[in-house]
Specification:
By secondary structure, this protein is α/β, with parallel strands linked by helices. The protein is built from ten helices and six strands; from the N terminus they run βαβαβαβαβαβααααα. The protein folds into two domains: about 140 residues, Response regulator (Rossmann fold), CATH 3.40.50; about 70 residues, Winged helix-like DNA-binding domain superfamily/Winged helix DNA-binding domain (Arc Repressor Mutant, subunit A). The chain has a six-stranded parallel β-sheet, with helices on both faces.
């Protein structure tokens, strides 16, 4: 799989190149700003773009804006955003406006957990999602009385939050210390309560996550 990296910190960029190489990716380009990222994606048509949220020249939302363009022009390119701080509106904006398949949003501190970070890279490149637990927690805290997911039980919300992090049924079961069959039952209940029609299981998981994000935006 081919990847491009957009990160203005030279040291972090070097580390990311090594991590992606270890994970089996071919790093086609490494750049330090949004315009160079768009040019690299246009040239190399990568499977994955690993993008810093804040880059030159303004260090605000250059990475997010570039990611939105990538998703519009190159929908087959997965995008994993990295951020120094929790900026949940960016996660909600990207996933709810561009579709959730092949998208992730992680804090940079997660890079230190190499095994988990590599798993997130592979999951997003394969069309899944990976949301940082701290971002998910912020999304939950932002909800008020008009919560569109109010039909869900507390346990079903826990399951949906872990789905948003990109965890599999087995991963959710381990996190909540329940059986996989119990997780499967909760997920089916979530699909029913969110009025998600029968479809491909992975697709419905993405739709459920989008509902989760949309309710927080």
């Amino acid at each position: 799989m081919r990847a491009v990296i957009a990160e203005d910190s030279v040291l972090l960029r070097i580390g990311l190149v090594k991590l992606l190489d270890m994970a089996g990716f071919e790093v086609a380009a490494e750049v330090d700003d949004g315009e160079a990222l768009l040019a690299a994606v246009e040239e190399h048509k990568p499977d994955l773009a690993l993008v810093d949220v804040r880059m030159p020249p303004d260090f605000t939302d250059e990475g997010v804006r570039a990611a939105l363009v990538i998703r519009r022009r190159h929908p087959d390119t997965a995008v994993l955003l990295l951020s120094q701080y929790v900026e949940e509106r960016y996660a909600a904006e990207l996933l709810t406006t561009q579709g959730g398949a092949g998208l992730g949003y992680l804090l940079k501190q997660r890079v230190a957990d190499v095994e988990e970070f590599v798993a997130a890279l592979r999951r997003v490149a394969a069309g899944g999602t990976a949301l940082d637990p701290q971002v998910v927690a912020q999304l939950l805290l932002r909800r008020g009385g008009m919560d569109p997911l109010e039909r869900l039980t507390p346990r079903e919300r826990d399951v949906l939050a872990l789905m948003a992090e990109g965890k599999s049924n087995a991963g959710i079961a381990a996190e909540l210390v329940v059986s996989e069959s119990a997780v499967a039952k909760h997920i089916n209940n979530i699909f029913a309560k969110l009025d998600l029609p029968p479809a491909d299981g992975a697709h419905r998981r993405v739709l459920a996550v989008l509902r989760f994000l949309d309710g927080a935006s």
